[in-house]
Amino acid sequence: MTFRQFAFNNVLRNKRTYAAYFLSSSFSVMIFFVCALFLFHPGLRGQVVYSSALLVLAAAEVVMYVFAFFFVIYSVGSFLRSRKRDFGIMLLHGMTERQLRKLVFLENMLIGASSILCGIGVGLLTAKLFLLAGSELLGVSPLPFHVPWPSLLLTIAAFLLLFLLISLCTTLLLGSHRLIELFQAGMKPAGPPQTSAALSLLAAGLLGGAYALAATATASSVLVRMLPVTAMTIVGTYFFYTQLSVFLIRAAQKRLRFYWKKTNMVTVSSLAYRMKENARMFFLVTIIATMAFCAVGTFASINRLADGFAADYPADIGYVAKAGSSVEESQLRRIRGELDAKGVAYRTESLPIYYAKVVSSTSDFPVAWMPLISFSGYKRAVTAAGIAFDEKEPADGEALVLLGSERELRLLEQRKPASYVFTGGAAGTRVRESGLTRHVAIPESLIERAGNDLEGSFSGLVVSDGLLKRLEAASKDGERRVDRFTGFYVDKVESTLGVAAELTDHGRMRYDMDKPYALTVSGTLYEVQRTTYRALLLFALLVGTVFFIAAGSFLYFRLYSDLEYDRRQYGALAKLGLTEKELAGIVTRQVGLLFFVPIALAIVHSLFAFKAMQSLFSFSVAWQTAFILASFLLAQAAYFLLIRARYLRNVKKAIR
If you average pLDDT over every residue of the chain, what do you get? Predict the structure, then answer.
């Protein structure tokens, strides 16, 4: 038998231990390969979604690759620790340390190469299905089966490099080669788990504080609290497993009526050791599962933003000619010509946008120029879009904050009203905010932005007709400028898809771009926004699934690394009278806690994260949250039932 055959046989003999690692690695390769198929597919290049899909899928590739690196290196470290007795036997029979390192290197490369071949093979078999499902999710025409060479080469090269680097690094993970330590690995009686009341209290305080901050977050404070809440949750989770969980188990042991009932003594005492020994693994699984839940849930909820598109873009084509523009007439003529050529019936409405120079303001984020429109102009723009109008004109000296987008509504509702002094007259003209408009009249892309990300951005102010006339009459040249908005309104927004393509960048030419005009084409923008949100959801589903499967693999590693010890323990208990029924109950409870405690804590973390996210949206994300968490929980339950049955079958061999 050659040395390579010896390495191959070692892998086959430990196939039960390596199974989850191999399958998870193969799944990561498959998902990476499928993403690469989309990235390099020629049929996607001509789609409107291509630029956004390219960015999102490239980000998914990077995230999965980085995660795969840490997943593999953690897995290899776990396997090395579980095989120390094997290494001791090999060294005892004359194997040198150099040969041992070579053996570990060959085993890792063998598993890695097999994972690459399996992942790509399954990817090829399911590529057509993924392409059809991805096309449907992205909202593009079905992509034909095609395997670009760059996608194949990228996958092979990326994962060969990954497994090669980690295989070379395994020599650093081998640790001590003293025979006595290698033979006693997994057999040393662990000391009683110790816990600190102060650190346990710290864990409870950190998690409780993080939950309280998340639950009470508002639209204006959620971004500020995000970083401290995340840090508190991570640190609190770590101390929960290393300290608080053991502290709670110790407290349960002191309740003698519960502790001495049936087999609870075996379950609880063993659980205390398991929680302490597996604390890092539980911590990793909880954080990874939380990331998976939040990623999928967040992007599933963001897709709801597409439902409010019509409210954000009441004009199906919005055009703003900046002050002094010489291209207004020719470009409006061009837009009309394209609509006429498509046979699209339309109506138009125009209104001036007056920019007043700001002398002073009470805003924390003042602007030099403030866009103003008259109340009558605001009313015409809203009613032209077919929206029922029942707002009242602001009083003299007051103004309504002009809503630029529905997504800014929650922030603006909590914003402190500001007052402004504009040039005009001897002492200037003072105006104070008295409320918000109920509708978007001019999309935010077509006007200079006022406000900020923390307090909410808006599109200027709506003032009374009389106040605007006085400002115009009192201001001098250089103290004002006037743009003109023209809106085109059609019956179906889809009919404007592709209109004015040469004048826009994917349906939009923002006001802050160096052009004499600003332009939005709702048909094109809707298609871009819809497909971008769907691409983000596809990204979250792929990455979240990889994360979740990896988390399950960590649990599998830990469970089977303790198998030999559990066999000896349950074999000894069987001699004292433990029945198979009692064994099944103990194993079910212990494996159930191993599988569901990290997932339960991850669900709690996610619920508070979604509660904080809800403060940013004017619609409910409860349905998406419940669906995502229930789906992951059902998947975990199915995985638990499968692993429990296999594990129980292996453990029962010790008592027969």
Answer: 80
